[in-house]
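anyone seen this seq b4? input:
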Amino acid sequence: MSLKHLLRGILCFTLTLAVTLGLPLSLRAAGGPEELTIDHPKVKEVIAVQERFTKDLMAQPEILGTAVGQDADGTVVLVIYVNNETKNLGEVMRALPTGLGGKRVRPEVTEPFRAFR
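predicted toks r here
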């Protein structure tokens, strides 16, 4: 199985798991905490960005995958997972955009994912 096929499978599994579990997130809104689910408009907007950009991001060998998450202030963001074993990690991190499709990006350095089936 190729690495690209494996990563694509992991991405599909992650999205399926998020949908199955309802992607429970919380966001601090003006009126207090707001529960975010897969059906929340803010989450749907970032999922659309994820679907639009993940294929091109994954074409870079240093990128392991993407996810929908939150940053420190509770904003729904596109998380880009970067391989911590990359030789040019500093360059990769500096080259990542701070936003895509009008949504914030949060890079996350991590070890390579392993699929267990």
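Residues 3-110 form one domain. The two ends are 13 Å apart (CA to CA). kinda curious what u guys think
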